[in-house]
Write a structure and sequence with these properties.
single chain; mainly alpha
Length: 80
């Protein structure tokens, strides 16, 4: 094992540690952490009760803004 092999090994290990410890994208501070209402709605849905999930979705409102309603309305172009 030469000095260059050790240097390359350390470089690869350092890169792996860097990318495993730090996220590739910044985290969303508004949605960080668990959502107790969502957990309760999911637990109720697992047991067959759909009303808590429906109430949670109704409470979310219509703040979807830029999300298209159907996949056919989504047009992607590399020219823009």
């Amino acid at each position: 094992m030469t000095r260059d092999d050790i240097a390359v090994g350390l470089l690869v290990c350092g890169a792996l540690i860097w990318f495993l410890l730090f996220p590739l994208r910044p985290q969303n501070g508004k949605l960080a952490g668990p959502d107790p209402d969502l957990r309760r709605a999911l637990a109720a849905a697992h047991l067959g009760a759909w009303k808590p999930a429906a109430e949670l979705l109704a409470g979310a409102g219509q703040d979807w803004g830029s999300v298209p309603s159907t996949p056919s309305t989504c047009h992607l172009s590399l020219d823009e």
